[in-house]
Amino acid sequence: MQMHLDLTVPDREALEHHHSRALALGAELRLDRTDDPNEPLYVYADPAGHPFCIFVAGMGSGVR
User: Fold this and answer.
1) Which of 26, 28, 32, 60 has its CA 20 to 30 A from that of 46?
2) What is the dihedral of CA 19, 20, 21, 25, to 10 degrees?
3) Residue 45 has pLDDT above 90, yes or no
4) C-beta separation of 34 from 55 below 8 A
5) Which three-class secondary structure string do you get for the chain?
6) What pTM value is reported for the model?
């Protein structure tokens, strides 16, 4: 059984920073949904194939 991790960041700048870091550490990009104005995110797989997401928390919901 695999666990899917959802990791949040506060804004798009942090999303891009952590995107670069994830790739540098060996993650494989599986989905780029950064054009979604309500929930920009990236989906990755770690080197062992376990999925995880990084997304901007609270976009479009009024939560900051």
Assistant:
1) 60
2) 100
3) yes
4) no
5) CCCCEEEEECCHHHHHHHHHHHHHCCCEEEEECCCCCCCCEEEEECCCCCEEEEEECCCCCCCC
6) 0.84
